[in-house]
Write a structure and sequence with these properties.
The chain has a single domain, classed as Four Helix Bundle (Hemerythrin (Met), subunit A) (Up-down Bundle). It contains 7 helices and no strands. Helices cover 80% and strands 0% of the residues. The protein is an all-alpha fold. It starts with a helix and ends with a helix. α3 runs antiparallel to α7 and α4 packs antiparallel against α5.
Length: 225
């Protein structure tokens, strides 16, 4: 991503996240749950970004597994870290909402369980990549692909199995006063996601370049010893 575009996205993300609370505060109050429903405007966009991170990571992992591409590997690890980051937001905001809606922070509902599983898979990815030894990159790449396969399961879970979680149709049935703030929040989170992804990729590129320089120095020293 070109630097001017990165700066533009960063400004849009900061402005969007700064203005979002005003839009959310001004949105209509849901009749059943009341004011606490407004956590929806953060919870669902965080879930969208979690899913996007999983797909980005899986795409990079497949690229790496097929071609051995370092760029694919960098994309996979960056996507995995963002999946874990936004997944934490989902797993924090969800129980806060559930406490009001269901009277408890957690139930082993199918959507909650599969969402927790997704987060744990990508957390395992990071541990495997860090401590997996010689085959760590390929092992973690396999975990990324496996984790992304959980995303469709999360999405359809409320339609296939009995669930107390709101249906996926809740987004498409939002009233006009809620629809605008919601999609504004989604756009703001998306800009934030893209900025963090590019910064994480830049860090990986710098690390790769540093490793190349270390090898070049070692080769030079060996050649002159």
């Amino acid at each position: 991503m070109k630097r001017p575009l990165l700066i533009l996205f960063a400004v849009l993300a900061a402005a969007g996240l700064g203005y979002a609370p005003q839009l959310i505060f001004g949105a209509p109050i849901e009749s059943t749950m009341g004011f606490v429903q407004k956590i929806f405007y953060f919870h669902v966009p965080s879930a969208f970004m979690t899913f996007l991170g999983a797909f980005v990571s899986a795409g990079g992992a497949i690229w790496y597994l097929v071609n051995g591409s370092p760029r694919g590997d960098r994309l996979a690890v960056a996507g995995a870290e963002l999946t874990v980051l936004f997944g934490i937001c989902v797993l924090v905001t969800g129980p806060l909402w559930a406490r009001k809606a269901w009277g408890t922070y957690w139930r082993w509902d199918v959507r909650l369980t599969t969402s927790l599983l997704l987060w744990m898979i990508f957390l395992a990815y990071l541990f495997a990549r860090r401590y997996g030894g010689a085959g760590a990159k390929r092992l973690s790449a396999g975990l990324a692909v496996f984790g992304a396969a959980d995303v469709p399961l999360i999405y359809i879970s409320v339609s296939v199995w009995r669930s107390i979680h709101p249906k996926t149709s809740v987004v498409s049935t939002l009233g006009p006063g809620m629809r605008g703030p919601f999609w504004f929040c989604v756009a703001s989170f998306l800009f934030l996601f893209l900025v963090l992804l590019e910064l994480r990729l830049a860090l990986e590129r710098s690390r790769a370049r540093l490793d190349e320089l270390h090898l070049a120095v070692e080769d030079h020293l060996d050649a002159n010893s």
